[in-house]
């Protein structure tokens, strides 16, 4: 009996995962996802997470970025936000909600009480099978995070967010440059070669 295309695709994905050095390392070191190494690389390059950082992690499921942040932050606060329920991590707070909702944003601001140093976002739109549409939707999420960050970060705050190289990439780039003094892009080695994702690093707000 022949395997279905879906079954073959699933098996190919599993094989690629087991051959993936970052997937293997995540299992060995106890990280919940290979994405943990993306944040490690980003922080090694830009050094934005410190022991006293107050950090918001958006789109945090399953919690790999929170694990990395918790290893560095000893006296700051960490809040993870995602629509999916996340298994608890010691000394990390969780908010299960849609970040885009006004109520969610109010809860976030109440938690930090004006002391928000860093926002990290690995948020991506649910895939539809249309790569162009998925890219546009994910980049819109990035734009939403930029707008939120520009209003609620401390003046010397930092934003790190995922976005995709696509037709609206330049629009997101210009938005970031209009809100922050320093804007950089970086694709970690832990990102898959075939992925169009890159990460935006923004620092120091421009006056509104």
Give a quick summary of the entry:
The chain has 7 helices and 7 strands, in the order αααβαββαβαβαββ. By secondary structure, it is of the alpha/beta class.
Structure description:
- The chain has 208 residues and is an alpha/beta fold.
- The protein contains seven helices and seven strands, in the order αααβαββαβαβαββ.
- Helix 3 packs across helix 4 and helix 6 runs parallel beside helix 7.
- It starts with a helix and ends with a strand.
- It folds into two domains: 30 residues; 172 residues, Vaccinia Virus protein VP39 (Rossmann fold, 3-Layer(aba) Sandwich).
- It is 42% helix and 19% strand.
- It is globular, with a radius of gyration of 17 Å.
Labels describing this entry:
single chain; 208 residues; alpha/beta; Rossmann fold
The domain count comes to 2
- Strand runs, count: 7
Number of helices: 7
Question: What's the CATH C level of the largest domain?
Answer: Alpha Beta
Derived from helix and strand composition plus strand pairing, the structural class reads alpha/beta
Strand order of the largest sheet: 3-2-1-4-5-7-6
The CATH H-level homologous superfamily of the largest domain: Vaccinia Virus protein VP39
